[in-house]
Task: inverse folding
């Protein structure tokens, strides 16, 4: 059986996909069922704070046999497979396997209602067509229908701005300008998109550049442009299961606000002058193709909390996003974030993202704390290993392993938690460049560069540094760090340091 | 037949009782294999005898440690002496001293290995009460590492445990999966 053969749906819906947006058509309380044959609403029943759905509704749609047994259980059968539900029990048996539901089945008059999770946890495992329940958007996708989840983010970058539009699972798109708006057409059957896709721009946004992002039809978004809009560039790249579309919008020159100026480095002849900075989306450098930026902490791990209420996890994410936007937009180097939202990512996972994507540089962003309120200034850390660790890493050597197609190949083996030992010299070089770029633009600590056994750096298989922007426990520093001027200066210094480091690597390679 | 069944039941009960006895007793056997020094017993030393120990507190700058000499009770073996020193270090202090250890942190246990490693088991307050931040965490860790290694030269490295267990970090930065050697670079 496949989705095309659904008798119930083909009879009800002979038209192609509806043209209205899912989130608009699925006005709660209803669950929108979407298949190749069309869509239909299924009523949601509220019980307490839980969303339920009638078993009779599901039975009609999915051709299930529902029986109330004499011993009190409710059996739901489909093609010889059985789900057993018990009133007042959150546990259910699905083909003999126990699953849990957020609430027990509830009797409403002559019918039984079950939590929405029944669909994903009990019905999906025994059904022979894919059932994808997207509870936040009240969407149930049946069969092979391509409905990417869309998230839209806008980051102001000085006088310009960047729209980042993620489609998960991946969906290609085309961007065209039509008068005063950009049209983004996705290669999909429909879109799972919040409404509105982008909240109204706040005070942080560039005024008059992007007015709004709205939904045009089932597969199209439109970006309403402001009077200051002068042009755009778009680029798409896959990130895991996501296709990320980045649209850089540029403001007209006459109305631009001052952008952060590149930090001059007169004492460093290798540093490029501002006019020599490469234009946006240049071909990537031969030496640095990917940078991983790691916003420290996140989720329930809030990190340092400032006296004024600033949280380390929020500031690190904000700054990391700016770094990513500048690195990608102006250098054309791929920049990955270890997290792009407020969630707790285990330390090893952060390093794994960098290692698995073969990043050429790892930058972890943090904020500092001290029980002495006077402590202040930014500092840069490289990993530190004792002699035993260096010896262990050096003695790991290579192992000769068979390859596909015959033959043997030497595979270099390095313990995961000692991977950084091979890159510590380059990490130290990058830290020194960072210090030089920060000096005069970002307040520095008494010891700006240091080495310490920091967990997130030790496993990084590339040059890696951890930057502490300053001390949130210092009220003056908190005020400074939360401001745009400081963050712009910081991001600019990082950008300049990456350019210099890239050039230094290239120079070393030619020698 | 009935007699055989009764015999079988009696046998099963006896086996079950033996099993319960083994389960309840085994942890005590295990615990005796380690030279754990619990903080509760007092050091077997003459009353009133003291040694000078160097304890560490946060410097005026807030980014380093500073060493202060203090009298600590004398103990007759290295493990007991280490316990006395760490116990003095975790004690609350008044201004102008500021400790890098969160308030309420206590020493649960301390034991030494034959190759000069110390395992210092601190209470969970060292994690729960920690303000975070790389430097703050480094100062906490090196307060413990240095107070043991700087005062007892036979001990070359320290592994910090929390609530009896190994931990990855205290606040997300400093790797505590391995013992750390003395590092006086953090002392001004």
Result:
């Amino acid at each position: 059986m496949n989705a095309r053969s659904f008798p119930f749906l083909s009879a009800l819906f002979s038209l192609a996909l509806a043209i209205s947006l899912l989130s608009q058509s699925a006005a709660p309380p209803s669950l929108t069922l979407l298949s190749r044959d069309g869509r239909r609403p299924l009523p949601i029943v509220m019980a307490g704070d839980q969303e339920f759905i009638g078993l009779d509704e599901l039975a009609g749609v999915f051709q299930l046999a529902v029986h109330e047994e004499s011993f009190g259980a409710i059996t739901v059968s489909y093609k010889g497979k059985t789900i057993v539900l018990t009133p007042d029990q959150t546990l259910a048996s699905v083909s003999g396997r126990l699953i849990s539901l957020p609430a027990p089945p509830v009797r409403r008059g002559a019918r039984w209602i079950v939590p929405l999770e029944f669909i994903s946890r009990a019905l999906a495992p025994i059904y022979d067509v894919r059932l994808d329940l997207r509870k936040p958007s009240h969407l149930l996708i049946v069969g092979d229908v391509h409905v990417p989840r869309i998230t839209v983010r806008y980051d102001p970058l000085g006088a310009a701005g960047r729209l980042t539009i993620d489609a998960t699972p991946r969906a290609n798109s085309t961007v065209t300008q039509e008068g005063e708006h950009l049209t983004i057409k996705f290669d999909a059957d429909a879109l799972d998109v919040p409404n509105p896709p982008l909240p109204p721009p706040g005070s942080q946004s560039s005024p008059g550049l992007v007015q709004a992002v709205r939904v045009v039809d089932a597969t199209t978004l439109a970006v309403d442009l402001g009077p200051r809009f002068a042009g755009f560039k778009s680029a798409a790249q896959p990130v895991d299961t996501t296709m990320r579309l980045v649209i850089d919008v540029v403001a007209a020159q006459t109305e631009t606000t001052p952008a952060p100026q590149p930090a001059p480095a007169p004492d460093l002849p290798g540093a490029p002058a501002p006019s020599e900075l490469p234009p946006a989306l240049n071909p990537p450098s031969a030496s640095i193709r990917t940078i991983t930026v790691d916003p420290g902490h996140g989720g329930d791990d809030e990190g340092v909390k400032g006296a004024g209420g600033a949280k380390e996890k929020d500031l690190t994410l904000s700054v990391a996003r700016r770094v990513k936007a500048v690195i990608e937009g102006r250098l054309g180097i791929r920049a990955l974030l270890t997290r792009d939202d407020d969630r707790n990512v285990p330390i090893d996972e952060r390093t794994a993202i960098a290692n698995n994507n073969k990043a050429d540089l790892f930058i972890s962003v943090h904020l500092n704390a001290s029980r002495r309120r006077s402590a202040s200034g930014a500092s840069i850390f490289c990993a530190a290993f004792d002699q035993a660790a260096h010896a262990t890493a050096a003695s790991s050597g290579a192992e000769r392993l068979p390859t596909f197609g015959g033959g043997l190949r030497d595979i270099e083996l390095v313990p995961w938690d000692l991977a950084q030992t091979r890159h510590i010299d380059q990490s130290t070089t990058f830290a020194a460049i960072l210090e030089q770029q920060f000096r005069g633009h970002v307040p520095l600590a008494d010891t700006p560069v240091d080495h310490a056994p920091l967990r997130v750096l030790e496993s990084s298989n590339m040059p890696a540094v951890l930057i502490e922007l300053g001390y949130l426990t210092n009220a003056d520093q908190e005020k400074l760090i939360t401001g745009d001027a400081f963050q712009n200066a910081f991001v600019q210094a990082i950008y300049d340091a990456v350019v210099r480091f890239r050039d230094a690597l290239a120079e070393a390679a030619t020698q | 037949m009935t007699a055989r069944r009764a015999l079988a039941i009696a046998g099963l009960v006896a086996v079950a009782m033996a099993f319960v006895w083994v389960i309840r007793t085994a942890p005590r056997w295990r615990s005796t294999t380690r030279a754990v020094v619990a903080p509760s017993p007092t050091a077997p030393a003459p009353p009133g005898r003291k040694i000078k120990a160097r304890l560490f507190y946060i410097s005026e700058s807030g980014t380093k440690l500073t060493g202060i000499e203090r009298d600590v009770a004398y103990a007759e073996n290295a493990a007991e002496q280490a316990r006395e020193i760490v116990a003095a270090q975790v004690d609350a202090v008044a201004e102008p001293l500021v400790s890098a250890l969160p308030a309420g942190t206590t020493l649960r246990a301390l034991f030494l290995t034959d190759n000069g490693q110390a395992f210092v088991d601190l209470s969970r307050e060292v994690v729960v009460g920690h303000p975070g931040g790389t430097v703050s965490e480094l100062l906490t860790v090196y307060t413990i590492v240095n107070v043991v290694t700087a005062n007892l030269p036979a001990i070359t490295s320290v592994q910090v445990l929390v609530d009896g267990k190994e931990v990855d970090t205290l606040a997300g930065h400093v790797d505590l999966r391995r013992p750390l050697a003395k590092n006086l670079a953090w002392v001004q």
Notes: Chain A touches chain B through 37 residues (CB under 8 Å). DSSP finds eleven helices and 28 strands in chain A. The first strand of chain A starts at residue 30 and ends at 35. Confidence is low (pLDDT under 50) at residues 1-27, 254-286 of chain A.
